[in-house]
Amino acid sequence: MPPPRGFKMILVALHAITCALLCLYGLHRLLLVGLLWRHRRDEPTESPLPSAKVCVQLPVYDERDVMEQGIHAAAALDWPDLEVQMLDDSRDDTTAIAQRVAATYPNVHVIHREDRRGFKAGALSEGLDRTDAEFIAIFDADFIPPPDFLRQVMGYFQDDVGMVQARWTHINRGANALTRLQAILLDGHFVIEHAARHRSGRWFNFNDTAGVWRRSAIDDAGGWQGDTLTEDLDLSYRAQEAGWKFVYLPDVEVPAELPEGGAAFRSQQHRWAKGGVQCARKLLPRLMPSRLSWSVRSEALAHLGANFAYPLVLLLALLTPPAAWLRAAPGLGWLHGLDVLVLVLATGSFVRTPKSGGGSSSYDLPRSWVPMLEAGMAGWQAIGLGLSIWGGYWESVPLQLLLLCGFAILPLSSPLPSARDPR
After folding, report:
1. From the candidates 89, 142, 234, 339, which is the catalytic residue?
2. Which among 186, 299, 189 is positioned nearest to 240, based on CA atoms?
3. How much of the chain is helix, strand and coil, in % rounded to 5?
4. pLDDT digits (tens, 9 = 90+) for 194-243
């Protein structure tokens, strides 16, 4: 028995609304591209290097595979008055390894916490309490800054500049299809989004690593706070709200590694997405009614609300296969063009993550059934793709093919759970 006509119209309308909302996200990306082009010749002002103490903070949690190279890279930074803090919240042998390596450098100190209160934000805050440095450089342990990093960055701290962010690059970009896709997405973030926001006077965020803070900017913003999973994004908005300016340097690159497996990637993305939503709930209610410029507020809304696109993509994936058939009814054929519009606009502009240190990681993430759900979604897209090809609904084919590939790549790079797996 065919579904009632009313049900068909509701499903088609819901699909059309989902497409329209995703197109808004795509239009925003195109706006950023336009802003980048418009301000392509705008460059930040560089001044003589300040003669100030710099403290390098390396927050780690059970990262034995990459911690040692992180200490060596930080200690090798060329700066006359340099202090290095290994902020260690580990519960394994990372602490002993860190203490052994730190003992070879007179200016490297290991600060180990038994109480992980505040998690990474708490560790950064405790390290701040133990230094009198005017500037704080922060690196995740798998980031390897070049020795002249500070000499490339510190000259951009004008009186009102509170943070300078460098660009991430990827030492394992070509490891597999997943790392290549991640590199493309992150390059889009750093090359387009950060540069466009910075050069057009809109707000952007510190990326949790590969950047330097002025200590007074952290203090003025209320310090590190552990009530979100993305403490970097939270502090960035609070500091800019307090009047500090940020500088982004796309030509200063700091290499690190990308997650090579689906489980690690999924864990990273979950943390970023959840933290982004937490920051949106925390910050937007006071930013939107403020007297900040419309350009700053609208970009803050788009930036902090970006993660709400994920449930829309899931809804789109669920609705597209049946909608492709239902739109074949007389008078609805033009709606097939929405799939093409979403494809062009939404894609044309485009928990701890274990690090391996160039080898295989000695840490394992808990296995889950999520890859099987993703595989099921991939199968649903494959059915819809086959039916669209059979029915001649060619406008829907590219979008369904993209969704199929997206859902299939993560299960193929993730282990399935075992019934006897004690974890």
Report:
1. 89
2. 299
3. 55, 10, 35
4. 999 999 999 999 999 999 999 999 999 999 999 999 999 999 999 999 99
The separation between CA 261 and the C-alpha centre of its own chain, rounded to angstroms, equals: 17
Q: Is the pLDDT of residue 169 over 70?
A: yes
In CATH terms, 54-304 corresponds, of 3.40.50.1820, 3.40.50.720, 3.65.10.10, 3.90.550.10, to: 3.90.550.10
pLDDT digit string, tens, across residues 366-417: 556 677 888 888 888 888 888 888 877 777 888 888 888 878 876 666 544 4
Angle between helix 94-102 and 67-75 (nearest 10): 20
Query: What is the rounded distance in angstroms from the CA atom of residue 338 to the CA atom of residue 352?
Result: 38
Here the tokens at position 333 are 């054929």
Give strand ranges (E) for 28-172. 54-60, 82-88, 108-112, 135-138, 161-170
Closest CA to 298 of 239, 290, 281: 290
R_g over Cα of the chain = 24
How many angstroms separate the CA atoms of 67 and 88, rounded? 10
Check 88, 142, 208, 232 and give the catalytic one. Answer: 232
* Active-site residue, 62 included: no
Q: Is 89 in the active site? A: yes
Domain ranges of the chain: 5-32+307-412, 54-304
* Contact between 141 and 84 (Cβ < 8 Å): no
